[in-house]
Design brief:
Elements (H helix, E strand, L loop, with lengths): L3 H14 L5 H21 L3 H32 L3 H22 L6 H32 L3 H17 L3 H4 L8 H4 L2
Helix pairs in contact: 1-5, 2-3, 2-5, 3-4, 3-6, 4-5
């Protein structure tokens, strides 16, 4: 696995490629929220706090991953990156399955913390791949950046707010800052 320093460099490089409010900046913001949510879950002192942190993590992680799967990964494939798109889908499906397993483990046990760390490591690596190459390729190759931005925001809002596509187009993004310790 890559180091924290290597991950930070990839995030910084991706931030430089992003424009305010574009799909890439939204994805990077979600990644920050996901990192914070993992930290909050890992640092939670009580089983109740762990469950609350897990729920906040699941909401931002699932909303983000679904938006990527519906909008960004098809765009990667369309723009010559089918292998990256396929790997991205596989990694996210695995993370969802692992999260489902975590939900069934007693949050008072070391097994819960161990599973959380396993998922965290896999998700951090996945985000590194996105920030380090995949999303930079998409930003460079896709001619329809405004479409990607609009659709990515809509799909995230659909999950985060549970609204239909018309309402999702105008809903304000849900902030997880208070829930994930940002």
């Amino acid at each position: 696995p890559e180091t924290e320093e290597t991950r930070a460099k990839a995030t910084s490089k991706a931030r430089k490629a992003a424009e305010p409010g574009d799909w890439l900046s939204m994805a990077l913001d979600h990644h920050g929220q996901i990192r914070s949510a993992f930290d909050r879950a890992r640092d939670a002192a009580t089983p109740e706090d762990r469950l609350a942190a897990f729920r906040a993590l699941a909401t931002v992680l699932n909303g983000h991953s679904l938006a990527e799967e519906v909008v960004l990964y098809p765009a990667l494939a369309k723009n010559g990156e089918k292998a990256h798109a396929g790997l991205a889908y596989t990694e996210q499906t695995t993370a969802k399955m692992q999260m489902a397993e975590l939900e069934r483990i007693d949050p008072a046990t070391d097994a819960w913390r161990d599973k959380l760390e396993h998922i965290r490591g896999a998700v951090l690596h996945h985000m590194f791949e996105e920030e380090g190459t995949w999303f930079l390729e998409l930003k460079d190759k896709a001619p329809d950046q405004e479409f990607l931005t609009r659709r990515f925001a809509e799909e995230y809002r659909r999950y985060a707010f549970g609204v239909d596509s018309e309402a999702a187009a105008t809903a304000e993004p849900r902030s997880f800052a208070g829930e994930v310790g940002e």
